Structures are given as structure tokens and as C-alpha cells.
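worker-3 :: picked EF-hand domain-containing protein
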Amino acid sequence: QPLWMELLDAAVATKLEQLESAATIVTPGSALALKRAELDARRERNISERKLNRAFQTGSTFHWRAPTREERRSAPPPPRAKPASAESERLNQLERKRQAHWTAKATGQPPLEKPLQEWSAEEVRGVLSIFAVFDTDGNGFIDEAELAALSEVMGVEATIKDADGLVKDGKIEPKEFFAFYVGCSPAEAAQVFTRHALIFADLEARSRPLKEWSKREVADVLDIFYEFDEDGSGLIDAKEFKALCEIMFIDEEDAFAHADMLTADGKIDPVEFFAFYVGCSPEEAEHAFEMCGWGKAL
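worker-3 :: C-alpha cells ->
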């Protein structure tokens, strides 16, 4: 109830009390009679407005009553909605897309999309470890025979065509296997490949055949190693490595950390030096020394 309405009601009531106490004879049609009729009508109108406001605020009318327990039990149940058919569901989906499109066009904001599912690095490595188990020949791909073995273990029927969705070369690479195994959408797969690119790159590098060097090539690199191994310890320390970096015009700190990749003990052994100098992987460097019949300490 606004304050001004309360004040007006009080003023009207006071005026009526004054008129009744004075027992004034009101002549019909006079100015006083018209004023009194106007005040009465305004008072009734105020009372009606207060009743309506109360009805709107409480959500009920003055004649409403709560149903009894018997009435609630005897009331018929609400009708159940019929299950939507496939066609009606398709039409509803199209209608929702149409409304989202026009809403986005009117507001200038893109429509809200379902958030993409994400996979952690551990989950990606877990799926790729399954890939490595069934890649029996180690060529970095799963062929039809290897996929058949995987399908038998999983208890499903799958063909190369079902999983070969990216390159479509008749074999399944790691990225295709991940998308096929977890059943993600193309957008989710692209997000995983971007976020965990290093994990996929590492698997592809390990699946490639190791590059080979001749014994003469390995011996030439070792000659450089012994030239900078001034104390003849069979290891190159930070001081000796600094002299090599000055000749090669490379940053000493970053290069030393990259060269000391296998043991990370602050010294560079022949295998680490070979991998650093020729730019190969540690596995390729170890393979080169094994093919030459040499160990790390020469």
C-alpha cells in the first residue's frame, strides 16, 4: 500500500467523521453532496484496488480454498505426454536450430554450442598404448589383420573403412585409431590432436624405422668427441663443451641441456654427443653404436 494512498484514506475518513459529527443537513445536488459522493466513490475504489493488489501478490482470490485430501485423491491424474516420433523430434530439432540461428543473427552473438569433450594426457597415452599393443609389426599403422584381432578382443565388428576416416589410405594411423576407439566427433578429435600433438608426434617418431650410419661415419663423429675431451675422461663436461659451442656459434646453456638428454648427469657421453652432433634421436644413436659393436665407453 503506497504511503500517499494511506494518507488519502485517513483524510477521507477524518472528513466523513467531521461531517457526521456536525450532523450537517446535506441538500441533494448541492456542492457538499457532490463532494461527499466523490469521496465515497474514491474510498470504494481504493478498497477495491487494495483487494486486487492482495490477490495478485498472493496468487489467490478471497474465495479460494485448499482442496481436501479426498478431493486430491479422487482427482484424475494429469494426462501423460505421448512419446515424440522420430519425425516430430527431427522437426523439433530443426526448429530449435532455426530459432538459435535467427536469435544469433538478431543479437550479433554466436549460438551456444555443446562443449567439446576433453581427454587428458594420461587418457591419450592409454589409448595409444592399446594401439602399440595391436601394432604387432611396429610399422606405426594398424592393418586389416591387426584390426581383426582388436575387434575380436573388443567383441565388435569393425572394418578398415570404419576407422580410416582421416587419411583414407587403407590403414589406421594413431590419430585415426584414437578417434575410432573413443568414438569422438571430428571437432573433438581435432582439439585432442592439437592439445596433445607432442604425444602423437612421439609415437610416430618411435614407429619410424631407425636411421643407420656406417662405422666410418660414427668414427668420424667420435674423433670430434675425443678432440674436445681434453682430460681424456671419456666424457665432455660443461667447460669442454663451451669450447665446442664457441666454434659452432651456438648457445652453450640450451645446447648442453639438449645434449645431456640420456643420463642428465651434467656430462656428455659418446652416445649423447653423437645424437646431439648429427641431430638424431637417442634410440638411433644407441642403435648406431650397437651396429658398430661399440659401447658408451670407448
